[in-house]
Structure formats: structure tokens, C-alpha cells
């Protein structure tokens, strides 16, 4: 005889409703959740997903739509979301938009068709306002990017404050010409550019923001152009981990050294970043906290669909390493 949800409930010593809540990813007492998942494993229970979809408006699937999976930030957040989803018996559909609003729209339509339980979304620059205002058939939590007054819950970094922190770190090291490279196709890049610009002005310095288009080789080209400019900046800030890697590659291609010829700092902390010379100074984002907060908001929104939207703003940690310690100021 096939194993049913009542068999799982009987073995776990809970109600069938509790088993259903665990399998659908709803908030359940941790002890009960472990008992249910253990009973699922012991009985070999496999839910009939097709039947469940016919009975319910949603599946036991989470959609995760990110702007650039190459970005270490999105890779790390995706890992956290997937880990938590697995613990809760949920599946994850991961989609990468490459900052392309057409792909973003297509994937959100896919989520509608799949009747997902909810979506965690890092919207594109042009799609952030539409996504933040749009009403979906499932709860959506925005990560990394949002707008004031968004109708969706969101978890973001305090981008302006973190960019300003890097400016002050470089200024304390003796630098007065500090250029900032920021993504031209994301609200994150815009916010970090704004924080950088304000910090430079507050210190009486002239901002030198460099917008970088999304695409292979764009950061290297922008870097090469800047470094060929007479009297170029002595310190550089990269808006994300992908850009930081590209800029370091361009510096080496030009035969320059960090920090002797130019200081370099940026966002995202990868394991290799403390192995390059004396290491790279970075803002380490709380990626695990962001992923866990997004999943918690998604779960809570299922239980309280009509509550007001919430916005969680988190701080990062500045890790100072050799790439900014030795002053190269002119």
C-alpha cells in the first residue's frame, strides 16, 4: 500500500495538518519539524505533487531569481536559501537574469505557471520599480535592491553607508583622488555611487564616479581608460566582487602593483581575496543573514499575507588588508 500523509503523521505523533505545514515550508516548531522530516524519511513518503497542485494554488517550490549568478554575493545568498529550503522539504528553482529585464519577466511568468510557494527576487535596474509595485499570486521578497515604499518585503545592505566607509578608509590612508567604479544597470550600484559621492564631498574631495555597463570586459576597459589618464586617481573602489576581480586583472595587465601604484578596495569577501599580495580591503556583506532573513520573511508572509511590507537594512563589515594600507597618494 502506498504511504500517505496520515501514515507520516501517525509515526511522528502529530496531526496530518502539521505534516502538511512542514512539507509546504510553513513555520512550525523546530522539534516537530525534525520529527516530521524523520518520519518522512522512515516511511519513504513521497507527496503526489500533481495532486497537491490541483488541490492548492501553490506548490512546495521556492523561486530564486538573481541578477548575476557570477557575482559572489548572489552565489552565497543562493547557497543559504537552498540550504534552508532543503531543511524544510522545499525545492528551489534558480534563475539568472543577467540584468536583462526580458529574461526577468520571462522567469517571473514561469514562477506563476509553476505555482511556486514564493519568490526571492533581486530585480534588474529597469525592473526594480515594476517588481516592487507589482502584486503577484505569491509572496515576493526583494533582496539587494528595492525602492522606497515598495509593496514587497525586502532585505538590503546599507549601500550608501558602506560605500562611504570605504571612502573614509582610503582617505585615512592618505588618498585624496579616489575613483569609484559602479554598476550602471543596478540600483545597488546607484546607491553605492551616491554614498561614495556624498562622502567625497563631505571630505572636500572631488568625486570621480565611473559608471560600468554590465557585460564581459566592461570593467577592464573602464579601468584601462582611467589609468591612461594623466594624474589619474591613486585609489579605486569597486562596486561588487565581479568588478573587483576585473579591476585587479586590469591593474596587473598594465604592469602596475597594488598598493604601490594604486590602492584598491571593494565589496564582497571571497576566500581568495586575502591571498593576493597583502590581501584586498573589502566590505563583507552578511550574505547568510540576508538569505535567512529573506526565507523567514517569505514564511511569515504566507501566514500573514495582508500585513504591511517590511524592509530590513543590514550593515556590512569593513575588512582592511594590504591593498589599501600603504599610501600611494600623490
Please, could you describe this protein's structure?
Mean pLDDT is 88; it is low at 49-56. Strand 6 (178-183), helix 9 and strand 7 (208-212) form a beta-alpha-beta unit. The longest helix has 17 residues, at 287-303. With 330 residues, this protein is of the alpha/beta class. It has 13 helices and twelve strands. Helix content is 44%, strand content 17%. A six-stranded parallel sheet has the order 2-1-3-4-5-11, with helices on both faces. A six-stranded mixed sheet has the order 7-6-8-9-10-12, sandwiched between helices.
Key phrases:
single chain; 330 residues; alpha/beta; 6-stranded parallel beta sheet; 6-stranded mixed beta sheet; 13 helices; 44% helix; elongated
Strand content: 15-25%
State the helical fraction: 40-55%
Distance from N terminus to C terminus (CA atoms, Å) equals 80 Å
Strand order of the largest sheet: 2-1-3-4-5-11
Record field, number of beta strands: 12
Whole-number radius of gyration?
23 Å
Number of helices: 13
- Uncertain residue segments: 49-56
What's the SSE pattern? HHHHEHEHEHEEHEHEHEHEEHEEH
The residue-averaged pLDDT reads: 88
Looking at the structure, what is the overall shape?
elongated
Q: What structural class should be given to the helix and strand makeup? A: alpha/beta
Please describe the biggest sheet, giving its number of strands, its sense, and whether it closes into a barrel: 6 strands, parallel
